[in-house]
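hey m, so remember when u said the C-alpha cells were messed up on ur end? i reran from scratch. heres the input so u can diff it against urs
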Amino acid sequence: MNPNNNQPNPLPAFVDAEEYYSHGSNLTIKDIILHHVRRIGTLASKEMCGGYWIEKPISVSGNIILTKNYVPDSREEYINAVSYLADILYPHFDKEMREAEKELNIKLESLIEKQKPEVQEDYKYNKYILFRELFRLLNSFLFRVQYLEGKSFEDEGE
C-alpha cells in the first residue's frame, strides 16, 4: 500500500531492452549483439578442451584436505554462446538463414542419434564444429542485412 493515499503500489514499469539505460548510454539490441559477437570471439580464441576437475590440497586447522574445482568445457561455453546469439537474432532471420538453421538442426539431430558413450569426445568435437558452422551462418546473415555497417533490423522495412 502506498502510505500517502492508501492505494496499492503500482506495478513496476516495463523496461524495454532497447530503452534500458546503462553506464550513461542507451543499451540497444545492436549493442547486445555486438558485445556478444565479441564474447564469442574471446571464447573462440582459447584452446578448446573438455571440462575436467582439479584437485588441490589445502591446509585447514593443520589438516590437509583436497578441494575439487571444475574447469568448464570450453567447447560447451562456445556452443552456448553461439546458441544464445542465434536466439537473439532468430526473430530477424531472413528466409536464407531460416533454411540454413533447419539444415543445421537436422545435422545436429543426426549427430545426437549417432552418439555413443565410448566416443563422447568425438561427439563433443563434432557438435563444436556444427556450432562453428552456425556462427559463420549468423555472421553471413548479419553481413547480408548490413547490420555491422550501421543498419538496424528496424531499417530493413524502409
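this time it looks ok to me. The first helix runs from residue 29 to 44. if urs says something different then somethings off w ur setup not the seq
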